[in-house]
Amino acid sequence: MPTDASNPAEAALQRPGSKADLFISFTMLALQGFGGVLAVVQREMVEKKRWMTREQFVEDWAVAQIMPGPNVVNLSMMIGGRYFGLAGAMAALSGMLALPMVIVLLLAALYSGVADTAVAQGALRGMGAVAAGLITATGLKLISALGKNAMGLPACMALAALTFVAIALLRWPLIWVLLGIGGAACVWAWVKLGVQAGTKGQA
Length: 203
Hints:
By secondary structure, the chain is mostly helical. It has helices at 8-11, 19-32, 37-48, 54-66, 71-111, 118-142, 153-169, 174-202.
């Protein structure tokens, strides 16, 4: 995503210093992401490292969600590829997977011995509640970024509500939500961008 120098938020953005910086940054991010990686990646990429604006994060996360594979892995490759091409994407991907994979394997071996205990099951239920809270808090924090969306905040909120109803209440398969509501959102965004482009052209 190109940076708009006329936008103060984008003009103040930083960039990874090297592929090693990408690897280390995503390794540290992955090690913090137990149960609530969305909250962690938003804080690290937007608020701490300032590699992207909040609006860019919302857009990139949306793309990462509809691609096959884990969302944050997709996002890491997108960010790495943006700055250093294929080598950057591989460096970010390696950071996301290398050390966390070793830790997960060790934890899986340890967990197998205590999986049936009441303490372990209670701990997992507690972590699930915390993860849900982290995701909800991050979603609320990112709502302000929708104000600059081409579709407008009311349309974005309506689409979010429809998506919630379709998945949480009606239990629609994700593919139909993406094709139906997601397709409608894409068409509406395309129409609004066309109108904006026409308005700028007349000006």
